[in-house]
Amino acid sequence: MEHFGDLLAGQVQQKKSAVCVGIDPRWKSLPESIRAGVDSGDRSAVAKATECYCREVIDAVASVTPVVKPQAAFFELLGPAGMLALAGVIKHATKAGVLVLLDGKRGDIGSTAEGYADAYLGRESAWGCDALTVNPYLGDDTLEPFVHGAVRHGAGIFVLVKTSNPGSGFLQDQVLSGENQGQTVFERMADLVQSHAAATQGTSGYGAVGAVVGATYPQQLAALRQRMPNAWILIPGFGAQGGTAADVAHGFDSQGRGAIVNSSRGVIFAYQSEQYKHLDWQSAVAKSAHDMAQQLGEATPG
Ligand SMILES: O=C(O)c1cc(=O)[nH]c(=O)n1[C@@H]1O[C@H](COP(=O)(O)O)[C@@H](O)[C@H]1O
């Protein structure tokens, strides 16, 4: 069985790109040609068209993206037909040679977490994902089943540490007292992630357990890179949320490894931007992913 940390390292090296394309298919933003003739009140028809669009997005970016991150929310809102579409998208990406990191932000008491882990993690699981985003703020006992599930199934997890949203400081930046006096909540979480990452590391030096740190907090990102030397970092918040290549540069190690940078709207809806308006929609998507890879390559060390 492949080791997730090594598999991701190999993919990033092969594609020469740290781009993670986020698949967040908001119906109203899909190209006119995809929406034409589809009754927006018919969830089943919308789900089918959405799947078709996502497959084309994957084909457009497959050569330049080691991993895609489908956002479960936009499939769930289409009901059961949306879940079938999500399954189709996962299979399509896998066939195209792109790793699938499902953004489900799962987290629950230990016994339920085990159910989520077995449902999503690994190519042999019901959903067949290579990795899953996990919300750890229920406590360390709720993270363990995901860690064990990842190792058992040759998959990975990305644990929320410092999220990109404006309100992430409400809890995550709080300073602890007692045994961990002076540490912030997100630093304590980072230490937990690092311990799991070190315990699960493969030959690349990176573990099956990674962290999520927003591009919108570049100083914290730089500090967290040092604090979690064995953890892959998924960096969302690039593009639409304001994060730049310079902001994410310190999320990489000194050899330019160890991080993937997600952009969803900025890539999959690139045809809406002035810069790419002259291109057909698939070419706009492909070009924006390619440009992002280039920007990251220029800004990263190594
Ligand atoms: O786990 C995530 O991917 C995530 C964590 C975080 O801190 N911030 C964040 O934006 N995300 C997700 O990353 C994607 C960002 O989308 P864009 O802002 O369109 O690039 C969305 O699917 C978010 O749910």
From TrEMBL:
Record keywords: Decarboxylase, Lyase, Pyrimidine biosynthesis
Domain of life: Bacteria
GO biological process: 'de novo' pyrimidine nucleobase biosynthetic process; 'de novo' UMP biosynthetic process
InterPro entries: Aldolase_TIM (IPR013785), OMPdecase_AS (IPR018089), OMPdecase_type-2 (IPR011995), OMPdeCOase_dom (IPR001754), RibuloseP-bd_barrel (IPR011060)
Gene Ontology terms for molecular function: orotidine-5'-phosphate decarboxylase activity
The Orotidine 5'-phosphate decarboxylase domain, residue ranges: 18-279
EC number(s) reported in the record: 4.1.1.23
Catalytic center residues: K105
Pathway of action: Pyrimidine metabolism; UMP biosynthesis via de novo pathway; UMP from orotate: step 2/2
Pfam families, alphabetized: OMPdecase
Reaction(s) catalysed (UniProt annotation): orotidine 5'-phosphate + H(+) = UMP + CO2
Family: Belongs to the OMP decarboxylase family. Type 2 subfamily.
Name of the protein described by the UniProt record: Orotidine 5'-phosphate decarboxylase
Organism: Aureliella helgolandensis
Gene: pyrF
